């Protein structure tokens, strides 16, 4: 084998048509035309010269051709070309069959030239007579631009289009001929295209353990197959938007060191029939060739929706794509080393055939992080920031309850931008407070004009929320209350610190409703009038009350019945009669009225504290927990909420 040349193992490249060939053909054509019209034996003579006069009287001229009244071409007789004095011109007869002139001259004037010719020819005998012809002859440029050039343009455009199509043959979906090719992006193990690892994923310890097992299987398959086990064929990441599903998939790509195909569910969808199924086939065919490998499909609900539930919204092309996906997934052997990773935030709409064992064997739930998880996520995102020593991840974690990973990343970025806007050298805790407000309430509306009467209503409204949250046992502790307008509709808001819990009792839900109604009740008590500012509050308590009656079975009259069916959310029919519906509406009104009465009782008893908080808001616009402690004393039920308040006033 050593005797073979170095390139013997390479597949020879096929020669392709090059556009420069067209240029070469044009040049050869032009040169050939010029050579055809070029004759070194053609002599230039003058009209007044003695040579021309002798030539006229010699009787050797066959004809004179006047071209465009500008030039004269003189053709000699064939017998004259045999003479010694024309021996050099005789070559033209041999080369061009006497089709080229032997002499040429420029005509200074048509009339003068005609007079000279007529004068000389008139005196000649009949055997020496000269035939004079007048012709109109176009130039080569005229012929080129009128006949050849448009044809060359058409050929050039055609070759340019074909060449563009040829260059895109390696790009999936680049041209119409590749529309059935997969659009998946391939990340190879050797080029380190993905720099994200499991160390960059924080707050998802349980989910990381699940996917680490998959990565370990791809690296050490014998460890699992030796015991007779087989790795799951598919893993479905389920979670709310921003919780880190795609980030976890990127970490798998960075850790696995195997080919990683990444694409979105919408990449399969196309307006042409059969394209989606063709792309699925091409994707899995390529994956089998690259095995062991991982296929990641983000937002798989774009093609994985349940079939046949709604005939009005049915889509044959999408269902064909899903059918092909089911066939390809079920056709895998246990030892192929091809694993499918998918992500969605709508698992309830997926087809049951997609979720059965043998396809997506495992569903990994990725929830919003708790306080410990938020602290870990903050540690990751704070590494690249220049921080004030007072900024600590545990502080920020306690200030961001319910935040997902993407929102935490946004808070860190917003805090850095705010600090830079203020020309600070480090990012301080105040910048993070402003960033949290920005994420929760939207952009601060400094230029929004609010009348003193409206500002007073907003202050008492927010003070009502704050008082209820301060004195109700099961209400969430207050973090901050403000009357600074933010976003499109928020004229003020109160931020609370919810407990990390998953089960709620009836009394807890009642206290949460009372806290939400605090703003409307405060307006009623102070002004004996109500405003439209409680719109969002009323929506929340209405949904909460209906949930207590129809979902959680927390009503004595309706009983321990749940009418909730996730599969019929968009149905026009209700799973109960009209009589039961009227009873549900009546019980919901009773629950809301009971919460309203309790809220009014609390605020009437604490009317003095309500006044203090409202006036402080009108003066300072923003009050933190420490401010409320100075104004109305410590909260009575602080032991119920172990999370410390770390926001500075």
Short description, anyone?
By secondary structure, the chain is α/β, with parallel strands linked by helices.
In spatial order, strands of the major sheet run 6-8-9-10-7-11
N-to-C CA distance: 80 Å
Strand content: 5-15%
Number of helices: 21
Shape assignment: elongated
Mean pLDDT: 77
Compute the number of strand runs.
14
Helix content: 40-55%
Major β-sheet, in short? 6 strands, mixed
| Radius of gyration from the alpha-carbon trace, in angstroms | 45 Å
Unreliable residue stretches: 1-15, 92-97, 168-177, 639-649
Secondary-structure-derived class: alpha/beta
Give an overview of the whole structure:
The chain is an alpha/beta fold. The chain has 21 helices and 14 strands. Strands 6-8-9-10-7-11 form a 6-stranded mixed sheet, with helices on both faces. Strands 1-4-3-2-5 form a 5-stranded mixed sheet, covered by helices on one side. Helix 12 packs across helix 13, helix 14 packs across helix 15 and helix 18 packs across helix 19. It is elongated. The two termini are 80 Å apart. The N terminus and C terminus are likely disordered.
